Amino acid sequence: MSDAERPTGASRTALATLLGTTLEWYDFFLYGTAAALVFDKQFFPSLSPAAGTLAAFSTLAVGFVARPLGGLVFGHFGDRLGRRSTLVVSLLLMGIGSTLIGLVPGYGTIGLWAPVLLVVLRIVQGIGLGGEGAGATLLSMEHAPEGRRNLYAGFPQMGTPAGLVLANLVFLATKSLAGHGTFLAWAWRIPFLLSFVLVGVGLVVRLRVTESPSFHQAREHDEVVGFPLADALKAGLPRLGLTLLAVLANSAVAYVFMVFTLSYGTQHRGYDQQFLVLGVTGAAVLWFASIPVWTRIADRRGRRTLFVGGSVAILVWCAVFFPLLDTGDGAMALLALAGMGLILPVTHCVQGAIIADTFPVRVRYSGTSLILQAGAVLGGGLAPMISSTLLGSGNSSAGVTCYLVGICAVSLVGAVALFRMVPDTSTEQAVLQPGRAGEACTPAP
């Protein structure tokens, strides 16, 4: 690709990764919203409300358990065959899984097979998303013009809040048009079935992007390896472990905010369901809009200061988030949600690039997937279930607050230790050159 063509191709790729991740997260978050508000009644009707919600969140967690499998499989082929083709397959898997969820009969029709099929399809969703997160970040970042690596790596991250907004709006619109009773009976399936059409649009766009220039260069230098994950592990346990710790908090806090808050606010604090869903949706709009701002700051000032400052801010806001919700006042609840919408993206927007820079190009997809998906399981996947367990049958959110503050503290310590261990390349003005497995990534001359 010539220098004249590169910016246009980079912009097209960034927008394509944003659209693709938006659609994948639409499917994934749609399940989370349904798990919080519908699935306990449809698939676990014999359980108490608290037990039914816990069971529904357990099926939510299954998708996160499947994500590392998807990350490893897609990471392997992404490093061997290229980023673009693997991302096409991941989008197809997510769309098929979500569409079929919309067709699964309820417990009253097929009994135990209903939650079993739900779990199987949730696994399919998890495998698809496991291949998406790292691949989309790499494809956009490796196309980036000089001096904009953080900005372009942030475009796929914008798909997370965009997918949440789309999922919640479709969910609310369907419920409003169908009515509460009809929605619980069968209309909740419509948003899942709609994913078939949306994924078709996403595939058309994704098939038009070009392969990563960095991958092309690695292949031309004969640096493609047979088992990239093994070489990725040569980065060393200390660095891998600290990178994992650094990204745990963002995932955990995000899923408590996006999923657990809905069930907690309606069942324990008496908030109107639509009010909370709209509140979370509005916060996600702030999240989406602020990512380009934070990533440009990271390109100019370095991502380390941004990430550490964001980690401190998340810790502080987690200490006040549930106390604000517990007031039962709508204005305080909106303040709590809006604060999350502004603070979460500070670390979220650069964590993909931080993880990616741990690995040389030829094993980057496998290594990034390993860290990203392990963090998603240990952080986000378990967070709603742990929060429900800590809440129990009581009415106090103190245990949940302590859990969030604790995991934020762990991530902050991990980030500080990680940044002391490795050199800072976050403001470099050129795309990283392919390196040998186990070597530090260095800027291009």
Question: What would your notes on this structure say?
Answer:
It is a single chain. With 445 residues, the chain is mostly helical. The chain has helices at residues 6-37, 39-43, 49-81, 83-101, 107-110, 113-141, 149-178, 180-187, 189-206, 213-220, 228-232, 237-268, 273-301, 303-326, 330-356, 364-381, 383-391, 398-421. Helix 1 (6-37) runs parallel beside helix 4 and helix 12 packs antiparallel against helix 13. The radius of gyration is 21 Å and the shape is globular.
Quickly count the helices: 18
Mean pLDDT: 85
Termini distance?
Answer: 19 Å
Beta-strand percent range: under 5%
The Cα radius of gyration reads 21 Å
**Main sheet specs:** none
Topology, number of strands: 0
Query: What structural class is derived from the secondary structure elements?
Result: mainly alpha
Kindly report the oligomeric state of this protein: single chain
Question: What is the fold's blueprint, element by element?
Answer:
Layout lengths: L5 H32 L1 H5 L5 H33 L1 H19 L5 H4 L2 H29 L7 H30 L1 H8 L1 H18 L6 H8 L7 H5 L4 H32 L4 H29 L1 H24 L3 H27 L7 H18 L1 H9 L6 H24 L24
